[in-house]
Specification:
mainly alpha
Length: 125
């Protein structure tokens, strides 16, 4: 099973973002944090940046319809890769908003966002 695993490296600075999702303020090639001084990220940034944050995700997709399986699975993997790219770009570009948060601040933020999302989709709990 490990031999079949494909490792995809996502580069938050240099990977192409779909035009409809591009936000200039979140472009890591130009963003510089006011609080930490980190950025902008240039070619080779992963080899030179200190400190560096790394994230690993294991994504398994199984679509059991013979004629469509490989196409649907590839499509889902591409979509997930785009989501991860956008999310991690935002995490870097929004660093000034979260760098001073402690764990209680994070929990409060997550609870607030969950409530707002539930309200938006009509899933009041």
């Amino acid at each position: 099973m490990l031999e079949a695993r494909e490792v995809v490296d996502v580069d938050i600075a240099l990977d192409e973002v779909p035009e409809k999702h591009y936000v200039p303020e979140e472009d890591c090639r130009y963003f510089k944090s006011k609080k930490t001084g980190r950025g902008p990220l240039e070619d080779g940034w992963k080899d030179n940046a200190k400190p560096i944050m790394c994230s690993y995700k294991l994504v398994s997709v199984s679509f059991d319809v013979w004629a469509l399986a490989s196409r649907v699975e590839s499509f889902v993997h591409r979509i997930i890769q785009d989501i991860l790219l956008l999310g991690h770009r935002q995490a870097f570009a929004w660093i000034d908003n979260w760098i001073d948060m402690d764990i209680e601040d994070v929990r409060d933020y997550e609870k607030d966002m969950q409530e707002k999302t539930n309200h938006k989709v009509g899933a009041e709990i």
